Amino acid sequence: MIKGILNGLQTYRTSFGLISKLGLWKYFAIPMTISFITAAAIGLSAWGFSDNLGHWIAQIWPWEWGAQGFDTIAQILSALLIIAIGLILYKHIIMALSAPFMSPVSEKIEAHLKGEHHAHRDTSNAEQLVRGVRINVRNLGLELLITIPILLLNLIPIIGSIAATVLLFLTQSYYAGFGNMDYTLERHFKYRESIDFVKSNKGQAIGNGMVFMLFLLIPIVGIILVLPVSVTAATVQTVTLLDKKKSIVPVN
Prior knowledge:
By secondary structure, the chain is mainly alpha-helical. It is 77% helix and 0% strand.
């Protein structure tokens, strides 16, 4: 898995150059807009609800002694919960809504790498959107189920918080990479086959998603550039994986 993560990270080296070489920046205008609006909406919502959630959680402490300390812990937990869920919602929303725009870009990159007449399934914009929503709703549910227990590790002083941070980052990275890879996989595999393919290449998904998540730490610029750069890297990476495994299915 470590090798896969490193491979996923390395594919970012040529992303900007490849986007410019193929003249793809114009195709990213709508996904960039979707990304910015979604991030702003989730950020404002998190800002408004964080204090209220923390005070609400603190009310379950029935004693006067330790109430202040518990209130502090509750506010920290609520902040982490909102940030984690906000990031989860953000990436799945933008990946699902951007599918009709990202899939054609991914196809152009694959055509550059494989030639114009490479074999793949033809899908419509509507099919790409439905596929994107289906994949991301599935991943959203699973990620939330994994995230909530991880957040409880914060109840363990220091060690628990460190472990929770690492596990949350890896979990979010995996599902971010999953979504980026599926823009290419949807042309080659059906729904269940794509899930199995990503599961067998967890390291590469995590590696791609790690940079995706780190991009979000860059104010404004990060949320604008995160999709173009990460999807480009994921396409190059996924095409390479498909070639190595000789898994490309013939056109129906």
